[in-house]
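Thread: "does anyone have the structure for this chain?"

Original post by V.I.:
We have the sequence but no experimental structure in hand. Need at least a predicted one for the grant figures.
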Amino acid sequence: MSVSISNETSKAPRAYIFDLDGTLCDTLPDLVSAMNSMLRRLNYPERSREELLSFINRGNRYFVWRSLPDGVAATPDDPAVDRAMAVNAEEYEKCYADKTREYAGMTETLKRLKSSGAKLGILTNKRDPFAKKIAAKLFPDIFDTVRGNIDGTPAKPDPAPALEVAAALGVSAKECAFIGDSDIDMRTAVNSGMLPVGVLWGYRSMSCLASAGARLIVSTPADLTTLAHPTI
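Reply from O.Q.:
Generated one for you, tokens below.
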């Protein structure tokens, strides 16, 4: 099932830019494991899955900062966050591929989009080295470019990284569909002038996606292929 929020999706995109966590694959179990390992190492109480889920999507620095106990770091730029991020990276390196899995039907959908002649990219607020490792492991030889976040550079929903990915794919922003599961992804698409496509199998609700600007919302990966052969 796909839900059209707008009738402006009649032209097939030349490129598809995907979020990673909650869109291409379920990474939450490994993110939770690494974060709670970090907290234990720092002698802080662990967080619940629900708490950690509410903290994701805004980049690793924000994720680590919010996961720390209240009062440890006043802002994301606090030196305590730098120390915690280093520990978190060590812990995530141990487990980033343990339970992370692609969503059912995703590889088949990506291959169909690619066979239509479209370019495929990933833009995620996950740290760049881990984004590239996960993409290579789960989706070998599928994506034309993968860009994660590098600390100190703009992150979604800033349009700059999305426009960089479009340029790497050799297309303009208006020729791209930006596909994601969060309000951050939809705002990124809107801010960069791309088609915002929300997915319902990830970490946020339909109302969250719609209110952030989604023009199309899909419930299965296979629904994305309708963009390559639009009927609306």
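V.I.: this helps a lot. The chain has a mean pLDDT of 94.
O.Q.: and Residues 79-95 form the longest helix (17 residues).
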